[in-house]
Amino acid sequence: MIQFKKVSKSFGTIKALEEVSFEVGKGEFVYITGPSGAGKTTLLKLILREYQPDSGEIVLEGVDITKLSDEQIPEYRQKIGVVFQDFKVLPERTVRENVEVSLAVIGVAQEAWSARVGQVLKLVGLAERADLFPNQLSGGEIQRVSLARALVVNPKIILADEPTGNLDWETADSMMELFEKINKEGKTIIMATHNKVIVDKFKKRVIKLKGGKNVGKEKVHELEKEPKKEENEKGEGKMKVKVEEV
Ligand SMILES: Nc1ncnc2c1ncn2[C@@H]1O[C@H](COP(=O)(O)OP(=O)(O)O)[C@@H](O)[C@H]1O
Ligand SMILES: [Mg+2]
Predict the structure, then answer these.
(1) 41, 47, 162: which to mutate for ligand 1, most atoms within 8 A of CB?
(2) pTM, full prediction
(3) Are residues 10 and 74 in the same domain?
(4) Residue 84: inside a domain, yes or no?
């Protein structure tokens, strides 16, 4: 469904991604792992066409998305639902209204909103919370609102960037169970995370990034024994390896 072919992306002198290649099949659930600064968010933003690569191809359902024109991008983005760590819900809108915004943005007729929003709120377990405001919800519930907003437009792919990063363990667990349920219903999920506990518990295929490159397991183990502290101190983050990260 998605192929990266030797994709490179730099920001000035920082090589965020270097000749990264991988493939994700339809209906798969994969993790993108790697320490902070490894290029996980950059990779997701490339799929979203928020960034263009410097070189390489990104093929989604047979189309090289790097070649889409600006006019084609809004329609392309409807294939993708996004869930970020910093939930990005609208504080002055109710749960229901937060989800409706997604439908309004893509021009779905208002008559269809109620049924679709109702269905998706039920799926994420928020049917009873529809008329509450974000400040009346727990962190886990707010993260479910952002997932509902992503799902309501019926995307083919869900991109999740550290979606459990701000949640306690119990809440993160139930969020992961929800992602698994959504995956079983047919969505392809690409989740960036450096949470080893999550990766070990909810086993999926792992695409490892290290300083912008795909790496094999052996290499990561080498680095875990000998983290290069001096590079951490420069704040580049690329060689930052903590035991709990993968
Ligand atoms: N918009 C940007 N401008 C400049 N540098 C960036 C930008 N986005 C990411 N980077 C750099 O690219 C590298 C990879 O970042 P990122 O993709 O955010 O990594 P991760 O999500 O794995 O922590 C880092 O060194 C980061 O500082
Ligand atoms: Mg990131």
Answers:
(1) 41
(2) 0.85
(3) yes
(4) no
